[in-house]
Amino acid sequence: xxxxxxxxxxxxxxxxxxxxxxxxxxxxxxxxxxxxxxxxxxxxxxxxxxxxxxxxxxxxxxxxxxxxxxxxxxxxxxxxxxxxxx
Length: 86
What we know:
By secondary structure, the protein is of the alpha+beta class. It is about 30% helix and about 35% strand. The chain has one domain. Strand 4 (about 70-75) and strand 5 form a beta hairpin. It is globular.
């Protein structure tokens, strides 16, 4: 019985993402640090950004759509270092 309870708990945590999304705090685009926006625009020049948030680890994630309508994301450290581009 304990093994079954442990398995159910593990499965529930795995499905829930162990604490939720990394998105922590919405940030208006005009409040995103300039180095972050500069790097985002340089790496994804055909994207019109419309959403941003600050992650729990202090990075910024900026999202928008390209001309074909594909959603693109970029995660950048406050100093302008690119962490990830999707």
